[in-house]
Amino acid sequence: MLYRLNEMSHAATAPMLWWSQVGAKLFTHPFSALSYSPLSRNVAASCELFARIVQRYEKPDFGIEEILVKGKVVAVTQTLALDKPFCHLLHFQKAAKVSLPKLLIVAPLSGHHSTLLRDTVRTFLPDHDVYITDWVDARMVPITEGAFHFDDYVGYVKEFIRFLGDGVHVVSVCQPTVPVLAAISLMAQDGEKIIPRTMTMMGGPIDARRSPTSVNSYAKDKPIEWFEKHVLARVPVNYPGAGRRVYPGFLQHMGFVAMNPDKHIQSHWDFFDHLLQGDGDSAEAHRKFYDEYNAVLDMPADYYLETVKRVFQDFDLAKGKMIVAGELVKPEAIKKTALLTVEGELDDISGGGQTKAAQDLCKGIPAAHKKHYDAVGCGHYGIFSGRKFRENIYPEIRAFIRKYN
Asked: Which sign does the torsion angle of CA 150, 110, 216, 234 carry?
């Protein structure tokens, strides 16, 4: 019912959206007489702001076509390395044939598309051969492909590591730190020959009991039956995944906004002012941020519920009770993979100590092969994107990878 109501609301506002988009152009285009009226900027700004509030935001492109390597421009081609029903493994292939450390970036499956890590990918590219998990919007996966569980996520990570082969390094950002640690633990337990040389865990809920945030409290304070009853829906018939049970992206987006409503209201008000003042650079920065922030995907219901239950309510991994595909996960079995954990001082998603907990769980890794880095002045997004990530955090990760490559 929730999903159908959301679809109906978009259908109802479609005519107004079209008129507002037309109005924004009529009152700004240099060949339009209306753009020279005294109130043209006010009308155009109002039209664009309304349009951006009610429009749908589709998945953005990575848009990485070239990078700068040692002062030279190198072309980059995005290719599909592996195609799975719920995830595409993407490869950013550089034109220059240079032997670089192979890097698997495991992006979150928590509402946003993997393009949220665009800056992460772009920063790693000059020094690494980069692959990234690009999770598929569950509403686009036919129900005939079956369900997707937490255990399937772990299985995907194991398969991707095997596919990339010996010498691979793994970086996990936020939510995937738990299934990634589980996957590498199981591979070590089973004596697999191909295991990552390093694993970097960034801002993730390895032990969500430590310094709980509002996100942790939201997940912990309600029984799992509440989530099943109130936040799940079935995909409508106008999508390939019709009938599939999901946690809709639009609900997740409402949750994102509800965490800092004043900040988003002020941001939109500032955008309106920038349009009035003709501050094109600031207005474009707003557009780019919200084009990404507002683009969300649906998550498979089984995976979502199991993540809430096993990571945020029962703390299975932290308590040594996580079972995947019938096998107990033992992080202490990891001995040959070096570990780097990264936390942001101001992270309001994964509190202080939650990611560092991996250091205690991985008892089999020699102390000399473990390192923790606290990113001073960084919030959650700042640990994998932005100036502080590029200037402070990335050099630490790059040096760590080089040390064990």
From this structure: negative
